[in-house]
Design brief:
heterodimer; A: 119 residues; mainly beta; seven-stranded mixed β-sheet; four-stranded antiparallel β-sheet; 11 strands; B: 112 residues; 48% strand
Amino acid sequence: EVRLVESGGGLVQPGGSLRLSCAASGFTFSDYDLDWVRQAPGKGLEWVGRGWNKFNSYIIEYAASVKGRFTISRNDSESSVYLQMNSLKTEDTAVYYCARDHWGSLEYWGQGTLVTVSS
Amino acid sequence: DVVMAQSPLSLPVTLGQPASISCRSSQSLVYSDGNTYLNWFQQRPGQSPRRLIYKVSKRDSGVPDRFSGSGSGTDFTLKISRVEAEDVGVYYCMQGIQRPYTFGQGTKLEIK
């Protein structure tokens, strides 16, 4: 069974940093691309970024809204993907999901972790 | 970026009746490999999104056959043949032809 479990969310002040983790199981992690998607309270879904797999040289892509502030990384030996978030803004408040990406589709999602940016 | 527009944004439906959600993209979602990368997701209250449909009409395992997807190019539809109580939630279309992936605004389905 494919499983994605996010962790690391919490309350942080504007300008602060937070690192989210997504632990995967039930599939060969290194073969897949992993994405981060967020959802502000009561709002829709917004793609944050993607970490490609080893076959695609671990390329990383970001949404314009987070580029330069967020960093996606992965550790295939630990079957985990990470989202390092710096210079956080109040508008970054959201539930952050990781999702397995396969051919232009997000086929499995985690349960999400809530990040609240507030003073 | 590809803009995805859904309608309606609110969909009250009587149990057992059909429902239909439209999704339009600002450019064609047909990729050079011939596939069309249009997905549908369901998000029940308090839950994570769940993929229902990919490549326009391919239903995921475990998705009831009352859900169907259709369309081509820039114009797509999700249909529920007979709405059940468990179908309450928000439905999103998403394009997977280019990054950034973009989603429709969401359609909130409720029981009338």
